Each structure stands twice: as C-alpha cells, then as structure tokens.
C-alpha cells in the first residue's frame, strides 16, 4: 500500500454528500472525507444511526467512493465548562463513532475544543484532555483511530500543545494540516514535531494570515512533507481540503482548480524516488 490522495466534502460545502462524492469521483479521487453537510447534520443524523449508515453506504455503492474519516462538528464543544454540555457532546460523538465503524471509516476526527471566558488556559486544556481520553476509548472499542485536528482557535493551536494533547490522551492521533500553523507563520521544523502522531493528513495551500490560498501563492512545502511521509512509511491518505468562504481570510478560492493544481503537484512528489 502506498500513500493515497483523497478530497474532503468541505471543498464543496453547499452541495449534498452525494453530489460532493460525484464531483470528487469526477476529479479522479476514490477517497473522501466526510463532515457537516446540508444533508448530514451532526446532531440530527446522529439521532438515527441506522438511517445515516444506510444513507452513507448507499452513496458509497452509487459512486464507488471510499469514505476515510469524518469530522462531526457538533454545536456543543467537547471541553465546554458545563458538565451537562459535555455529556451532550459525548452522546453526540458516541453516535458518530458507531456510524463511522458501520460505514467502514478508518477514524473520527474531533476538535479538542477552545478557550472559554472565565477559565484559565490550563483548565480548558485539562478539560479537553479528559474528553479526548474518553473519545480514544470509544474509538478503540470499534477499531477506529480517534484523531484531533489541531487548528486555529482551539486549545491545540500550536504544535507544542497538539503534541502535549496526544501525550496526555494515550492512543490519540492527529489529523495534520499545515495551513493552521503557516497561518501563524510557525516554522516547518516546529510543525513537524506533530508528524510522528499523524494518522491522517489534510492538504491545501496557505500563507501567514491566510488559511487557504491559491496553490501558486502558498508557503507550505509539500515536497518536503511527502518526502518525510515516505521515509516514515506512512500508509494512509492525504486528503485535499481547499475551502470556500471567508474564514480566517480564506476565501474566493476556486476549489476545483486549486484541487486539480495541488493534486498534480502531490502526484509528482509521490512519484519521485
């Protein structure tokens, strides 16, 4: 098995999961990451596990796509200070771990949560670590990777915090996206501290102050990333995730064209000896 390329549903956020799968297959990908969608509400879809499993398996059968990972973004974050809110988060996430196992995904990606007013950074981080330890157990019961995506505006917004979280929740792995750290102009060598914990990768170009930009304008060294992944015998997926919108000044990016452009680069790097 070699490194495979895939594409994220969120590159086509306004269409249904089926339509996104059709677009992604038309672009030449066989692998796809899932997330919130007009037809896949993270709360409502989790309330009827059987129906959601049947729906996603039907899309797989119709398109031939293989779903790799899902990032269910629930309205209640895992490290919410209110115990009742954390209980609700666990209930919602447990449903998605079950869906992921029954649809044949490799893992579930989570946010560890954010900082909360009136609480210290250490308190928010500790609360998140406790919830990630619980989530690792849910994944292990079903043979799934439990991952977090360290991201801006989270309690793992630096590589050092991401590594600390993985160490404090044994078994937790990372979905790594360099764009969240290039955004803060964090050097490659610092970002690479996370690499040994990575079991899944997202890819788009970015630059300081812009979390998503055109392929020829970005500063992420994907050749170096691919070389290091090959040297480490990584056997998973690099999932392209150009996103529309104006979040963190990302936006007005032609997701189709940039996906094609970066795919061509990644294929070139993967073919290099």
Concise account of the structure shown:
This protein has 273 residues and is of the alpha/beta class.
Can you give a write-up of this model?
This protein has about 270 residues and is an alpha/beta fold. It has one domain: Alpha-Beta Barrel (TIM Barrel), CATH 3.20.20. It has helices at about 15-25, 45, 50-65, 85-105, 120-140, 160-170, 180, 190, 220-230, 255-270, and strands at about 5-10, 30-35, 65-70, 105-110, 145-150, 175, 200-205, 235-240. Strand 4 (about 105-110), helix 5 and strand 5 form a beta-alpha-beta unit. The radius of gyration is 18 Å and the shape is globular. About 45% of the residues are buried. The model has no long low-confidence stretch (mean pLDDT about 95).
Architecture blueprint of SSEs:
Layout (H helix, E strand, L loop, with lengths): L3 E5 L8 H10 L4 E5 L8 H4 L1 H15 L2 E6 L11 H21 L3 E4 L10 H21 L3 E4 L10 H10 L4 E4 L2 H4 L5 H4 L6 E6 L18 H10 L5 E4 L14 H17 L2
Parallel strand pairs: 1-2, 1-8, 2-3, 3-4, 4-5, 5-6, 6-7, 7-8
Helix pairs in contact: 1-3, 3-4, 4-5, 9-10
């Amino acid at each position: 098995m070699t490194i495979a390329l895939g594409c994220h549903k969120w590159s086509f956020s306004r269409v249904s999961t089926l339509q996104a799968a059709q677009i992604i297959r038309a672009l030449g990908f066989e692998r796809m990451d899932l997330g919130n969608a007009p037809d896949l509400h993270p709360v409502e879809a989790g309330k009827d596990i059987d129906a959601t499993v049947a729906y996603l398996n039907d899309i797989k059968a119709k398109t031939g796509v293989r779903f790799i990972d899902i990032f269910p973004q629930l309205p209640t974050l895992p490290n919410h200070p209110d115990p009742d809110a954390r209980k609700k988060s666990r209930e919602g996430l447990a449903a998605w771990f079950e869906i992921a196992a029954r649809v044949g995904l490799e893992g579930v990606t989570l946010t560890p949560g954010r900082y909360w007013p009136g609480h210290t950074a250490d308190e928010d981080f500790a609360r998140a670590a406790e919830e990630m330890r619980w989530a690792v157990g849910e994944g292990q019961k079903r043979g799934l990777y439990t991952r977090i995506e360290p991201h801006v505006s989270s309690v793992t917004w630096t590589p050092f915090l991401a590594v600390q979280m993985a160490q404090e929740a044994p078994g937790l792995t990372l979905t790594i996206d360099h764009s969240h750290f290039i955004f803060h102009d964090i050097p490659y060598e610092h970002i690479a501290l996370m690499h040994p914990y990575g079991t899944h990768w997202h890819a788009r170009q970015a630059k300081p102050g812009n979390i998503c930009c055109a392929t020829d304008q970005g500063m992420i060294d994907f050749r170096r990333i691919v070389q290091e992944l090959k040297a480490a015998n990584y056997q998973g997926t690099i999932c392209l995730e150009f996103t529309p919108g104006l979040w963190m000044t990302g936006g007005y990016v032609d997701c189709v064209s940039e996906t094609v452009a970066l795919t061509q680069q990644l294929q070139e790097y993967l073919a290099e000896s």
